[in-house]
Design goal:
Layout (H helix, E strand, L loop, with lengths): L17 E5 L16 H5 L1 H9 L3 E5 L16 H10 L4 E4 L5 H9 L5 E4 L6 H4 L3 H8 L4 E4 L10 H12 L4 E3 L1 H15 L5 E5 L8 H7 L5 E4 L3 H8 L14 H11 L3 E2 L3 E5 L9 E4 L8 E5 L1 H12 L3 E5 L12 H15 L3 E5 L1 H9 L8 E2 L4 H7 L5 H4 L8
Parallel strand pairs: 1-2, 1-5, 2-4, 3-4, 5-6, 7-8, 7-13, 8-9, 13-14, 14-15
Antiparallel strand pairs: 10-11, 10-12
Bound molecules: adenosine-5'-diphosphate and magnesium ion.
């Protein structure tokens, strides 16, 4: 079912209205309680700017960190509110409460076109418990609910799905914000019905967290290119030597079964960069995958693999990338990840739709300054994986359907 989005709501229905927006301001703070990385705050600006322009009275809620239902001063949203104020040219107010009397008074005092940031929803135990009373209190703060927190959409919390349900029960609307709309468009519509050839690239630390993604992509993808530590478990499944590489022993039978079923859809690396240890990059060298020495570990894909993967990627019409190809945090083991990132950019320039999911993959793109050179970089780590797997996300499911207005 298609969900209603903020773009479906005309300005007239927003002017002067109290609009409650759930954003993902779960940002890292430094020791001076300043925002160390404001990517997530910037990601919410399209939604917030639309609301300000339409003259809405915008009330912003979010979680930050894991205070576990208690007030933890170091996890206050005040620094995020301060950073937001630097990014926009409308007044940004903050109140150190979420649903109490002061919060209610502040929402009533808010003028059209202004922003009010409320305190961390997870200071209240009811948020993670999806408490109905809290959901109703939150819904009471606004006339309309906008969920723009895709990164939190896989959790059924009072501030994500509970408040949306309470809003709808009252006869009002709960809609997707701009960021959420883009995520649904790329991860839902594009990947749900991809233009072929559709090439998926999977890497990262573990096969166990991503096995369901491989399963769900297998019938849809023309190629699944595997790199990162995940490839090691597949090497073991093929009875290749893996040396001291990170291998998930308990997943070998599963990997073997998957390879038997995948035909030529799953493509493994041809060569890898090995070293005796992560902190001995000076002793690294490239070997074919049948020759990983017993005392060495695979830490990146090799140049032959980069060439083979690049050929597949640049010929694709749809590309999904999740998980770095090696330990990209160490310069000597980052060439594979760089190579794949460059191939994605080339494919994008040639007209393909290219989508990157996963926190570390997104960080790798940012390091390379290629963040804006692909079609879409998802802001949701766990949420994007679950969505790609085809699981319904509570934060999405709970929104109003298109037929509701
Ligand atoms: P994402 O956040 O993009 O989903 P993951 O969290 O699954 O990615 O994995 C990222 C981590 O995987 C990185 O810290 C990287 O160093 C690690 N990694 C990649 N390849 C290897 C490898 N061959 N051996 C050990 N760690 C690896
Ligand atoms: Mg990660």
């Amino acid at each position: 079912m298609e969900k209603l989005t903020l773009a479906d709501i005309p300005d007239d229905d927003l002017t002067g209205k109290r609009v409650l927006v759930r954003v993902d301001f779960n940002v890292p703070l430094d020791s001076q309680e300043r925002v160390a990385d404001d990517t997530r705050i910037r990601a919410s600006l399209p939604t917030l700017r639309r609301l300000a322009t339409a003259g809405a009275r915008t009330i912003i809620i979010s979680h930050l960190g894991r205070p576990r239902g208690k007030r933890v001063p170091e996890m206050s949203l005040r620094p995020a509110a301060r950073r937001l104020a630097e990014l926009v040219d409308v007044p940004v107010h903050f109140v150190g409460e979420t649903v109490g009397k002061q919060a209610i008074i502040a929402t009533r005092a808010l003028a059209a076109g202004e922003f009010l940031v409320l305190e961390n929803t997870r200071f209240l135990p009811g948020d993670e418990q999806n408490d109905e009373g809290l959901a109703e209190d939150l819904a009471g703060l606004g006339d309309l609910f906008v969920n723009d927190a895709f990164g939190a959409a896989h959790r059924a919390h009072a501030s994500t799905s509970g408040v949306a349900a309470a809003m709808k029960a009252r006869g009002d609307l709960a809609v997707a914000g701009e960021l959420m709309r883009r995520e649904l468009e790329y991860l839902g519509r594009t990947l749900g019905n991809p233009q072929h050839p559709f090439v998926a690239i999977l890497g990262g630390a573990k096969i166990s967290g991503k096995i369901d993604v491989i399963e769900s992509l297998l019938p849809r993808a023309d190629r699944i290119l595997v790199g990162g530590a995940m490839a090691n478990t597949f090497f073991a499944a093929r009875d290749l030597p893996t040396g001291t590489s990170l291998v998930e022993e308990d997943r070998i039978p599963m990997a073997r079964e998957l390879l038997a079923r995948a035909g030529d859809t799953v493509i493994l690396p041809l060569d890898v960069v090995v070293a005796p240890a992560l902190d001995e990059p000076e002793s690294s060298r490239t070997v074919d995958i049948d020759s990983i020495p017993t005392d060495m570990m695979a830490l990146d894909i090799g140049p032959k693999t980069v060439d083979a993967f690049t050929a597949e990627i640049v010929a694709a019409m749809t590309v999904l990338w999740n998980g770095p190809m090696g330990v990209f945090e160490v310069r000597e083991f980052s060439d594979g990840t760089r190579g794949v990132a460059r191939a994605l950019v080339e494919a994008t320039r040639a007209g393909a739709t290219t989508i990157v999911g996963g926190g570390d993959s997104a960080a790798a793109l940012t390091d390379l300054d290629l963040h804006d050179d692909v079609s879409h970089v998802s802001t949701g780590g766990g949420a994007s994986l679950e969505f790609i797997e085809g699981k319904g996300l509570p934060g999405v499911e709970s929104l109003s359907d298109r037929g509701d207005i």
